[in-house]
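anyone else get weird line breaks when pasting these?? whatever heres mine. first is seq + tokens for prot A
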Amino acid sequence: DVRLVESGGGLAQAGGSLTLSCVVSGITFHDYAVGWFRQAPGKEHEGVSCIVNEDGSTHYADSVKGRFTISSDNAKNTTYLQMNNLRPEDTAVYYCALTSWDGGSFMWDSAEIYDTWGQGTQVTVSS
């Protein structure tokens, strides 16, 4: 079974930091890309970041560029999202997701290409 488990969410003040973790089991981690998405109440999933584990290439939403950093530790089958300078608008449930998409057009922030999702972890940022 393929499983993703997120952790690290919680409450932070504006300007603070949190680090999210996503542990992946049941696959060869190297062969996949891992995305982070978030969903606020009443809104659709928003792509936050993605890392392609084979080569370490990364993608970021404009809204988090310069504040968030994605990384992977392949030996631990874990992807991290370091979130700095948090803002109240970052408040959402954050999900990690797994894709083996290898098409010519890699739309990393499109939720439909991701096959397996974690349970989500709540991030709340107060002002």
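and prot B, same format (seq, then tokens)
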Amino acid sequence: QVQVVESEGGLVQPGGSLRLSCAASGSVSRIYFMGWYRQAPGNQRELVATIISSGNTNYAESVKGRFTISRDNAKNTVDLQMNSLKPEDTAVYYCNIRLVPTGMSPTASYWGQGTQVTVSL
């Protein structure tokens, strides 16, 4: 129903910045939630930042003050601006899109394929 595509990540030096973008397409008229998650080797996937249709945001404590999530409702995109990057930010980052639930799809959730972000000298 919904296709989710992330931009390429990359290699960034500690203290550097990187911007990730995510574009949703398909049945996107009922999107209410967009978020970024990440998964480091040996760890479970964890929430990084989320934003809902009203613009309200939520951040993991580990990234608060360094990362900023934003969305463009007209373009159905969500960005993650990452500043002051640390080696512990190294992970595969995933975009997640959720739709307003209906009787036919009460828990519609869609994931991107993931993009690698590496913070290292």
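btw re prot B: Residues 48 and 63 are 7 Å apart (CA to CA). The chain has no helices and eleven strands.
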